[in-house]
């Protein structure tokens, strides 16, 4: 599976720009012609890296700079053709979010680092089948006490969902539009003991639950929500966008619909017709 990939890692700081949807602008992106098949209800992984070449052996901050504290989220948008849709505009719904655990003052990005940069994402089982953009995002708040100080990092992956029941329709938001520059989760001083933190954007869509497109109150602790299956590379220094197979993981074979591109330094080798 492949993301619409970028070769730079400059953050998006203006939440009113169209680039807040799927990156671009200061980070030129190259759309992929590949679409990965995903079964509704399954879990995918977005993998974050500091740079395109960062590994545990050559970069102590190979996931992202630990000072980049903030929330981690995932969104989806149903589209006609995921290979050509530019992402910005209406149609987005959030499927996962994690913010601040006020009991420990621990942020989602720290958990992401501790999990080797793996953001697990579960695709809702009740959505309609078809092509979607899957948007993985983190927001670094280390400089967010000033206007346009929050640093947004995101990439979009192209997926085709099957097996969905189509029994629930999520409430939709727009990018740009879902975030405001003065939202309490965007404009904030994190260098104090916080008793609440409002994660930007709508509440996550949950099959069978009533959803709101706005937050009524601040969250009191981090909420880990499972997302869905994609591999993403992007962070504070370099936002890449290739979904790759993990070292020693499956990268091909009969009936395989997952990642077919190997991680840097790895080679896809045929073991049998299925691997």
TrEMBL record:
GO molecular function terms listed in the Swiss-Prot or TrEMBL record: cellulase activity; cellulose binding; metal ion binding; monooxygenase activity
Main location: secreted
Superkingdom: Eukaryota
Key words, A-Z: Carbohydrate metabolism, Cellulose degradation, Copper, Disulfide bond, Glycoprotein, Metal-binding, Monooxygenase, Oxidoreductase, Polysaccharide degradation, Secreted, Signal
Cellular localization per UniProt: Secreted
Record's GO cellular component terms: extracellular region
UniProt cofactor(s): Cu(2+)
Catalytic reactions of this protein: [(1->4)-beta-D-glucosyl]n+m + reduced acceptor + O2 = 4-dehydro-beta-D-glucosyl-[(1->4)-beta-D-glucosyl]n-1 + [(1->4)-beta-D-glucosyl]m + acceptor + H2O
Domain CBM1 intervals: 243-275
Pfam families referenced in this protein's UniProt entry, alphabetically: AA9, CBM_1
Enzyme class of the recorded protein, top EC level: oxidoreductase
InterPro entries the UniProt entry points to: AA9, AA9_LPMO, CBD, CBD_sf
Entry EC no(s): 1.14.99.56
Coiled-coil blocks: none
GO BP term, example: cellulose catabolic process
Record remark: domains: Has a modular structure: an endo-beta-1,4-glucanase catalytic module at the N-terminus, a linker rich in serines and threonines, and a C-terminal carbohydrate-binding module (CBM).
Entry similarity comment: Belongs to the polysaccharide monooxygenase AA9 family.
Function description: Lytic polysaccharide monooxygenase (LMPO) that depolymerizes crystalline and amorphous polysaccharides via the oxidation of scissile alpha- or beta-(1-4)-glycosidic bonds, yielding C1 and/or C4 oxidation products. Catalysis by LPMOs requires the reduction of the active-site copper from Cu(II) to Cu(I) by a reducing agent and H(2)O(2) or O(2) as a cosubstrate.
Protein's UniProt name: AA9 family lytic polysaccharide monooxygenase
Source organism (scientific name): Monilinia fructigena
């Amino acid at each position: 599976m492949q993301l619409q990939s970028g070769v730079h890692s400059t953050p998006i700081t203006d939440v009113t720009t169209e680039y807040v949807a799927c990156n671009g602008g200061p980070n030129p992106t190259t759309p992929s012609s590949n679409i990965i098949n995903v079964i509704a209800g399954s879990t995918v992984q977005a993998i974050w890296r500091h740079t395109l070449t960062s590994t545990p052996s050559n970069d102590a901050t190979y996931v992202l700079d630990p000072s980049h504290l903030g929330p981690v989220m995932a969104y989806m948008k149903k589209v006609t053709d995921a290979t050509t849709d530019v992402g910005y505009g209406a149609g987005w719904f959030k499927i996962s979010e994690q913010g601040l655990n006020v009991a420990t003052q621990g942020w989602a990005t720290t958990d992401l680092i501790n999990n080797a940069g793996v953001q697990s994402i579960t695709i809702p089982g009740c959505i309609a089948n078809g092509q979607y953009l899957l948007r993985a995002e983190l927001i670094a708040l280390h400089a967010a006490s000033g206007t346009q100080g929050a640093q947004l990092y995101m990439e979009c992956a192209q997926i085709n969902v099957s097996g969905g029941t189509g029994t629930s329709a999520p409430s939709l938001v727009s990018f740009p539009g879902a975030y405001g520059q003065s939202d309490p989760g965007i404009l904030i001083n994190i260098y104090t003991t916080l008793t609440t933190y409002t994660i930007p954007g709508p509440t996550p869509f949950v099959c069978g639950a009533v959803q709101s497109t706005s937050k009524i109150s601040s969250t009191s602790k981090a909420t880990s929500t499972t997302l869905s299956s994609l591999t993403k590379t992007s962070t504070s220094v370099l936002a890449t966008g290739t979904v790759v197979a993990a070292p020693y993981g499956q990268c091909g074979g009969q009936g395989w619909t997952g990642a077919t591109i190997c991680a840097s330094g790895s080679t896809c080798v045929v073991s049998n017709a299925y691997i």
